[in-house]
Each structure stands twice: as C-alpha cells, then as structure tokens.
Design brief:
The complex is a heterodimer of chains A (320) and B (109).
Chain A lengths: L14 E5 L3 H10 L6 E5 L2 H11 L3 E5 L7 H10 L8 E5 L4 H10 L3 E4 L4 H24 L11 H18 L3 E8 L2 H8 L1 H18 L5 E6 L2 E7 L3 H16 L13 E8 L9 H17 L4 E6 L4 E6 L2
Parallel strand pairs in A: 1-2, 1-3, 3-4, 4-5, 9-10
Antiparallel strand pairs in A: 6-8, 6-9, 7-8, 10-11
Chain B lengths: L15 H26 L3 H14 L6 H16 L7 H19 L3
Helix pairs in contact in B: 1-2, 1-4, 2-3, 3-4
The chains are: A alpha/beta (320), B mainly alpha (109).
C-alpha cells in the first residue's frame, strides 16, 4: 500500500474488480456500471483475481462463485487470509440461489450476495452501498492513526510503521532516513502566551511539515512538541535538505498570537544511502536521530544535525 | 419469436446502451451454439453444463430471458443425471430446443 499523508483526502474514482469466468458478465457489468463513478478492472479466474487484488488493492471485489480452476469460495478464503486484501469488501455473485451458498459466503467474510441473472438497479445500489461502507471503514481506520491536534499520524502509527518501513527498505537495499524534530523553547511559548497559543504553534509547525514532506514520507507527532519523519528512499543528504527547508520555513512563519516572537525548531537526522550493510535496529536508528537532535539543541538550537548511520557528519546547516 | 424478448429487463433496442448489449450478445451467440453442439457431440457434459450455466446467468441481462430459461432447463437436467450418457435422448431434445431458440434470434425469419 502506498503511504500518503492523512490530509487532504484524495478524490479518485474507486476501483472495482470483477472476477468472473464469463465474458458475458464482464460485458454486461461494464455497460451497466458505466454510469457509476468507478473504474472497473477485470479478471477471468480466481487466480488472476487474487493477483490483481493484491497488486491494486481495489475498493470492492465482485466475485463469481462458480468458476473453473479456483472457485469463488476458494478465492474468497484466500482473499480473507491475506493481510493485503483482507479488508476489501467482496460481493459474491452466483447463479445459484441457495441459502447454503449464501451462508458459506457470508461466513467466509463476503459483505453481500447477489444472484444471477442480475436485477441491475439493485446491483448498482448494492455496489454503491458497499463502496460507501468501505470508504467509511477506511476513514475510520485512518482516523485511529491520526493525531487530533496536528493532523499528522500519531505515535502508535509511527511505531507500527517504523519496523515495516525498516524491513521493506532493507529488503530492497534502498536508502532511508529518519528525522526527529523539536520545537525550541516551547514551554516558554505556553507559559508566556497560554496553551491555545502553544496549540497553534504545534498545528502550525505540523502544517509546515505536511507541506514540505512527500506522499511517501510518514510524518508523525511523536510527543508533546516533538515530531518524527520516516523518509523512505531518501539518503541523509536529501533528508538534510528537506529538513533544512522545514527549519527555514518555520523560522519565517508569522504567528497571529505573538507576532513579535518567531518559532524555531531543532532537527536531528540519521540516515543511510545504502541499507545493504545496516546492522542497527529501527529503535537504535531513532535513538541516533534523537542524539543528533540533542546535539542540535546543545549547539544553539534552530539547526539541523545530520549523520550517516556510521556516524559521519553530513553537514551542519545553521541559521545566522 | 424473432425479436429480443423484452419482459424481464425490458431492454430497449432504441436505447444505445441496450442496443449495444443486444448486439454484443447476438454476435457472440453463434460461437456459443457451436460450443454447445460440439460439447454434446463429444459427450463433454461438463463443458455443456458450463455453457448452459453461463447462458442462464447472462442471457436475461442482455434481453434474452427465454434463452436463459432454456439454458437453465438444460443445466438442471445435466445436474440431475448422474451419468448423462445414459439419458442422451432427453438431453438431445433439450439441446435442440435451446439451439433452435438461439438460432431463431441469430437468423430471424
């Protein structure tokens, strides 16, 4: 699944995958679902259906029960066993109106059951209803991962993603960098201007981070005034540049509650251009970024300190 | 019986989308008829049942519910008989009925 920042929600037509061995059914539904704002993709047997489902993660699957080679039940079972496809709603299509089949399909995790020949108005309504449901579930799942104040991912999601991104990167031998960001003198903002002003600073910095990160980055609110960014496919030089952009952007933000007082951030980055030889754990990696953050604070704040995983300094950018 | 049967889904030959579906079905139908005949000739009853099953499910959606009904009868008969080769005559008459119905659409008199 491609990672995207939680906001803004992307508006694209949902993909509906039709798995049926009959060309007639493909042609029929292609014509009859044309008026719905969906993209129809198709597979002619269960095996091909599984592959497409795993690759494209459609929003909905219409699955015929009665197919040669791998029948609908078997396909459904495999879809529900695979974490990549488990949550995709499946409407089962069947030429048999047997309650035994319906019970079996629902027990295996189908969301709905439609018998052929189709009543098309009804099928369209059921497709719409399932898509609505899957969209709500998706938003709910996403919401559980989002920090309310900043709109960034929350700590729990960061922890979940850290090891999976780490493993994925190692598998492909790609580059990866991690940044820890802390707002300078945040406590004094709170004490001087009040907590609403402090909240405004957190959401302002979060907005800046969201704007400056790419869709593959995973930006989180790590703790009170601390943020963390996982940057896949990014070597420490590129990470340094990106964080420097965020640092400079922050320095120049204007604050309505305290126009005379600028807000700055300190950033620690640890990364590598080649994960082939990595021996560090993901937790150790975060610790290293945190250590660099500490150095940034110690050496005067409002700066980015970046090292490679072997400890080599990338460069020390600092504000005047 | 030489026009598409309009009852179950009331396909409208004047509606472009409906006409497209009717046309598609009529284009594909001769091929299916050949497959049915070949399967029957070769005693390939599984293939025969598969085609009958597909036609049963699809034909009504294309505006041909009577073909769906005849195909359903054939499928039912194949399902009921444990050894279809023993009741070839009954099957033959059902196959003939389905095929001639299809042909009446393919070559309207």
């Amino acid at each position: 699944m491609s990672e995207t920042q939680p906001n803004p929600y992307t508006e694209t037509s949902p993909v509906v995958l039709l798995v049926d061995d009959s060309q007639f059914v493909h042609r029929l539904l292609e014509a009859r679902l044309r008026s719905e704002s969906i993209v129809l993709s198709s597979a002619e047997d269960g095996k091909a259906g599984l592959e497409i489902a795993q690759r494209d993660e459609p929003s909905l699957i219409l699955l015929d029960l009665d197919m040669p080679v791998m029948d609908g039940f078997e396909t459904l079972r495999e879809l529900k066993e695979d974490p990549r496809t488990r949550d995709i709603p499946v409407i089962v299509l069947s030429g048999m109106n047997s309650s035994q089949d319906k019970v079996a399909a629902f027990d295996l995790g189908a969301i709905d059951f439609v018998t052929k020949p189709f009543e098309l108005t009804e099928l369209r309504a059921r497709v719409r209803s399932s898509l609505r449901m899957s969209e709500l579930l998706r938003m709910l799942a996403q919401k559980a991962h989002i920090d309310g104040l900043s709109g960034l991912y929350n700590r729990q999601y960061f922890d979940e993603k850290l090891s999976s991104e780490f493993n994925r990167t190692l598998r492909h031998g790609q580059s990866l960098s991690i940044a820890m960001i802390d707002i300078d003198h945040f406590k004094s903002v709170n004490d001087t201007y009040g907590h609403p002003a402090g909240d405004a600073v957190i959401s302002g910095v979060a907005n800046l981070i969201m704007r400056e990160t790419r869709s593959i980055d995973i930006a989180c609110r790590y703790g009170g005034e601390e943020f963390a960014i996982i940057m896949p496919e990014t070597d420490p030089n590129q990470a340094q540049l990106m964080c420097e952009r965020i640092r400079q952007g922050c320095e120049h933000l204007a604050w309505s509650r305290h126009p005379a007082r600028n807000i700055t951030i300190s950033v620690g980055v640890a990364g590598t251009g080649n994960t082939d030889t990595v021996t560090i754990t993901p937790e150790g990696w975060v610790e290293m970024a945190d250590k660099n953050l500490y150095h940034a604070k110690q050496s005067g704040r409002n700066r980015v300190v970046t090292t490679g995983l072997d400890g080599t300094h990338i460069s020390l950018a600092q504000a005047g | 019986m030489n026009a598409p049967d309009p009852n179950a889904f009331s396909l409208d030959i004047n509606d472009p989308e409906d006409a497209e579906l009717i046309q598609y079905f009529l284009t594909e139908l001769p091929d299916r008829v050949d497959t049915i005949l070949a399967a029957f000739t070769n005693d390939d009853f599984r293939e025969l049942e598969r085609i009958a099953h597909q036609l049963k499910g699809a034909a009504p959606g294309f505006g041909f519910p009577s073909i769906g009904t005849e195909a359903a009868k054939l499928e039912q008969q194949l399902k009921l008989t444990s050894d279809p080769s023993e009741s070839v005559e009954t099957l033959r008459s059902q196959v003939d009925q389905l095929v001639s119905l299809c042909n009446s659409y393919i070559n309207p008199s």
